[in-house]
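name: query_chain
kind: protein
chains: 1
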Amino acid sequence: MDSEADYDALAALLTDPDAPVRSAGKALHGAAAAAAGREFLLREYGSEEELRAALRPGRPRIGAPSASGESPTVRGRISERDYAAFKTLESKTGKKQSELVREAIHLLLVENKLAS
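structure:
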C-alpha cells in the first residue's frame, strides 16, 4: 500500500459486511502451528538476528539500538507554572513528555556546543 487512497480502499473493503471472506486454510495446532508462526516471522523480519531483536523484552534502548541494558535516566523537578506550560506544549505538539525532554536536552547541548 503506497498511498492514503490505498489504505482508504482497504479500510472500506475490510468493513464491508458484504465482502467475501476467504478461508485461511486448515487450522494448525501444536508444533505445526509454532513452526508456521516462526516461518512467518522469519519472512517478515528477514533473519534470526532481526527476529531476536524484535522479540527482545522491554522497551527499546534510546540511541544505539545494539547496546544492551537500560538507557540513562535524567530526573528533575520544575515549577508548577513551567509544568502547566509543558503540559500545554505536550498537548499542542502531540509528543510525549519523554520526547520533549530529550529534545530540550539536545537543544541545550547544541546551544552549549556539546552536541551537534
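note: The radius of gyration is 23 Å.
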